[in-house]
Automatic annotation (TrEMBL):
This is ATP-dependent RNA helicase DeaD. Residues 2-30 form the DEAD-box RNA helicase Q domain. It comes from Rossellomorea pakistanensis. Residues 215-377 form the Helicase C-terminal domain. It holds the Pfam family Helicase_C. GO terms for molecular function: hydrolase activity; RNA helicase activity.
Length: 502
């Protein structure tokens, strides 16, 4: 087993590596570092997470001339995030040195700041193709004395469509340069580019069969489009990842999923091309520092994403091909650590999943959460039934035994007859209560009718006097008697007077 010292790395660099916990070189580092130090052109095919960044950074730092104030090494990356990550790795290694400097050149950043730093002694430039061509056109980046050229993630640059820009940049460099090409896969277009621009390259392949890392457990879960969001939320709550990356097909789907997960109180952030560079850098920083547990991203934005501690990868949208699948799940299980990659697929996407398995010569275990939940429900119900039957049996066992089955039946019949008698007595008592209540109601009704009749008679007996005053029946009778007596009295007086006159 090689160590860094035997590979040609200086003791000062080894001490810095040890401070960051890097003690032994990975297979790709063991094969690439000696060849690069010797000045050979190399084509290294290694999947992400194998330590290939240090595989070209360490030997380049050994060969850089600190006193020379011009661009000696150029590293081209497909994305801004990968450019920043490589720049961070270089800065860690040269932090104690004042004679070396590195600059990240990418779109979305203030050009004036880049121009000011380019005027200083910058020996290493890391950038994306578009912004590099911009600086070459401005005359602010001179590649005429370039010694080392690195094409990192070359297959992804082909996928994005940057190969023409990369060729334009390579034309601005001297043919005497040393060229290093790193790629997870090796499409024919990349091989053609290598033959055209690389002289007698050395081919390095870490694994014969290019596939996912063995430390990554892979699963595929069936889910239609309508239930995808609920399925993902259920998976996140079930597995509780320390850090997880969720891949979506488009920027719009990233934003929509981010809103849904945020509403469900899942600590997450989003990263895609429509966000400003400041927001993307802030999202990456929060994810690296574990301030958020879930990062939702597109393939392009997460390309080359190298974050320690990513435990889970969720393919919310299935990858379009085997290469994208390798790059996605390569975010976890890095440097020998274990990881879990879960791919959601529908019946319409099943052929794509089968094609990925066929190209990678692997078998991904498939599950259906709906059926799993049904099975769990059945097992719970069956266990509940068994427990209830056990309770019944125990209850039967606790009953006192009688001699023979006939005795038990007699006891049951006796109990049933007693219960019937009790029910009959209860019914009879209820009927008696009902009849008494009915009789009481009838009596009260009759009394009410009598009272009404009395009141009506009293009101009929009432009358009004001549003066309009209301009197009772006794007063009316007295008034009649007085009027009759007066009439009779007047008749007598008249008769008396007549007799006297006579």
């Amino acid at each position: 087993m090689h160590d860094f010292l035997s590979l040609g790395i200086s003791e000062s660099s080894i001490k810095i590596l040890q401070e960051y916990g890097v003690v032994k070189p990975t297979p790709v580092q063991s094969k690439a570092i000696p060849s690069i130090i010797e000045g050979k052109n190399i084509i290294a095919q290694a999947q992400t997470g194998t330590g290939k960044t240090l595989g070209f950074v360490l030997p380049i730092l050994e060969k850089i001339k600190p006193k020379e104030a011009y661009v000696q090494a150029l590293i081209i990356t497909p994305t801004r995030e990968l450019a920043l990550q490589i720049t961070d790795e270089i800065e860690k290694m040269i932090d104690h040195r004042s004679d070396l400097d590195v600059l990240a050149v990418y779109g979305g950043q203030d050009v004036e700041k880049q121009l000011k730093k380019l005027k200083k002694n910058v020996q290493i430039v890391v950038g994306t193709p578009g912004r590099l061509l911009d600086h070459i056109g401005r005359g602010t980046v001179d590649l005429s004395k370039l010694s080392h050229l690195v094409l990192d993630e070359a297959d992804q640059m082909l996928h994005i469509g940057f190969l023409n820009e990369v060729e334009e940049i390579m034309k601005q460099t001297p043919r005497s340069r040393q060229t290093m090409l790193f790629s997870a896969t090796m499409p024919e277009e990349i091989k053609t580019l290598a033959k055209k621009h690389m002289h007698n390259p050395e081919y390095i392949q870490v694994e014969k069969t290019q596939g996912p890392a063995q430390t990554v457990k892979q699963m595929a879960i069936y889910s239609d489009d309508r239930s995808k969001q609920a399925t993902l939320i259920d998976l996140i709550e079930t597995h509780r990842p320390y850090l997880a990356v969720v891949f979506c097909r488009t920027k719009r789907r990233v934003s929509k999923l981010y809103e849904v997960l945020s509403r469900n109180r899942i600590s997450c952030d989003e990263i895609h091309g429509d966000l400003s560079q400041a927001k993307r850098e802030k999202a990456m920083q929060r994810f690296r520092e574990a301030e958020v547990q879930v990062l939702i991203a597109t393939d392009v934005a997460a390309r080359g994403l190298d974050v320690d501690g990513v435990t889970h990868v969720f393919n919310y949208d299935i990858p379009q091909d085997a290469e994208s699948y390798i790059h996605r799940i390569g975010r976890t299980g890095r440097a020998g650590t274990k990881g879990l990659a879960i791919t959601l697929y529908s019946s319409r996407e099943r052929p794509t999943l089968d094609l990925i398995e066929k190209e990678l010569k692997i078998r991904i275990s498939k599950q259906n959460l709906g059926n799993a939940k049904k099975d769990q429900g059945k097992s719970k119900s069956s266990s509940g039934k068994s427990q209830s039957s056990k309770r019944k049996n125990s209850h039967k066992k606790s009953k006192p035994k009688t001699t023979g089955d006939s005795g038990g039946r007699r006891n049951r019949n006796n109990k049933s007859t007693e219960q019937k008698r009790n029910w009959k007595s209860n019914d009879e008592s209820k009927k008696e209560r009902g009849t008494t209540r009915k009789s009481e109601n009838r009596k009260s009704r009759e009394n009410g009718q009598k009272n009404k009749k009395r009141k009506s008679m009293d009101s009929g007996m009432k009358s009004r006097s001549k003066n309009g005053k209301r009197t009772d029946s006794k007063g009316a009778f007295k008034s009649r008697m007085k009027s009759n007596s007066k009439k009779s009295g007047s008749g007598r007086n008249k008769g008396g007077n007549r007799n006297r006159q006579k």
